[in-house]
């Protein structure tokens, strides 16, 4: 089995009965805990118009988490670039890298991170996204380069800084782009499993080495819910299941507490849809998690696993990341 790094994806989940202030404090607590366990990085994802997710001002939140940690890499998983001016993102992440040198990543996606009406409010033009996204990535690389010092438009801060760019995707489109540009590639397997294997194959087969990256680098984002017993882990996972039912029903309310019986909540069709979308979810005790991770890695051979964990109880969420870390360690020592 190929060895791999582990990291955290945090959506700043808002829980029923909790405030957004509570959410941000929980995110900071999780980042500190992940840092203590030597997780490689802690990424936050841009979403909009959702009561259940508070990471809309992603750059601001990254700064808050970076200020409260010491060494873990912080970044975006991702910034939805067509929602923004390339120059503004270069300045924001240039500011972050200047404040926290050597710790900032910039993951970039093309999806809106929201519904169509909100995407329109963000100023997106869906007719130009496929052309705009690659162009904006090249603009960012230009703004970050030392060679841009003589340009009429410059990113200050940002110019001359080494801020790694990552291409994010949930289909095969961005796999082609990441391969062409010679950039690392992260796939959203935690909610879009259908094309993950094909996307990885495209990326590996068509990768062009660049000054940024010599060989392919793949991050797979998956769901992870671990507990001392299998029974408890599956109980905790019902928060994740309910969250996806809410997406299907277009109900964006905060994340609910776990329940004992899911069949009282979802219909057979909803159950099938949720389980299909959550195909890459590792749920169970430490030995079960280790076995699931081993099986996954033998097939997909990724460089890094980024774990997203929707668990209602904050301490149980911390415990889950600790159990997953132990499971990964046991595999590397086997």
TrEMBL record:
Signal peptide: none annotated. InterPro entries: Bact_Lucif_Oxidored (IPR050766), CmoO-like (IPR019949), Luciferase-like_dom (IPR011251), Luciferase-like_sf (IPR036661). Residues 19-298 form the Luciferase-like domain. To bacterial alkanal monooxygenase alpha and beta chains. This is LLM class flavin-dependent oxidoreductase. It comes from Chryseobacterium gilvum.
């Amino acid at each position: 089995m190929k060895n791999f790094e582990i990291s955290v994806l945090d959506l700043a989940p808002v829980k029923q009965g909790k405030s957004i202030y509570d959410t941000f404090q929980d995110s900071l607590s999780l980042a500190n805990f992940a840092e203590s366990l030597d997780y490689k990085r802690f990424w936050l994802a841009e979403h909009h118009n959702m009561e259940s997710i508070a990471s809309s001002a992603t750059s601001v939140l990254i700064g808050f988490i970076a200020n409260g940690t010491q060494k873990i890499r912080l970044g975006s998983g991702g910034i939805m670039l067509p929602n923004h001016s390339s120059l503004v993102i270069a300045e924001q992440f240039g500011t972050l890298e200047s404040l926290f040198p050597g710790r900032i990543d910039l993951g970039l996606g093309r999806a809106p991170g929201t519904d169509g009406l909100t995407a329109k409010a963000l100023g997106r033009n869906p007719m130009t996204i496929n052309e705009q996204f690659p162009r904006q990535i090249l603009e960012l690389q230009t703004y970050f380069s030392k060679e841009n010092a003589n340009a009429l438009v410059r990113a200050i801060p940002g110019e001359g800084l080494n801020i790694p760019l990552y291409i994010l995707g949930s289909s095969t489109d961005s796999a082609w782009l990441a391969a062409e540009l010679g950039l690392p590639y992260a796939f959203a397997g935690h909610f879009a499993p259908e094309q993950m294997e094909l996307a990885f194959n495209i990326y590996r087969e068509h990768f062009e080495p660049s000054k940024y990256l010599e060989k392919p680098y793949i991050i797979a984002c998956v769901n992870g819910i671990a507990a001392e017993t299998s029974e408890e882990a599956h109980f905790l996972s019902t928060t994740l299941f309910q969250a996806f039912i809410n997406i299907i029903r277009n109900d964006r309310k905060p994340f609910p507490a776990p329940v004992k019986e899911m069949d009282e909540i979802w219909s057979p069709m909803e159950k099938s849809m949720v389980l299909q979308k959550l195909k890459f979810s590792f749920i169970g005790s430490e030995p079960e998690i280790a076995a699931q991770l081993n099986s996954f890695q033998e097939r997909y051979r990724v460089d890094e696993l980024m774990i997203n964990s929707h668990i209602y109880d904050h301490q149980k969420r911390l415990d889950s990341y600790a159990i997953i870390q132990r499971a990964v360690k046991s595999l590397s020592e086997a």
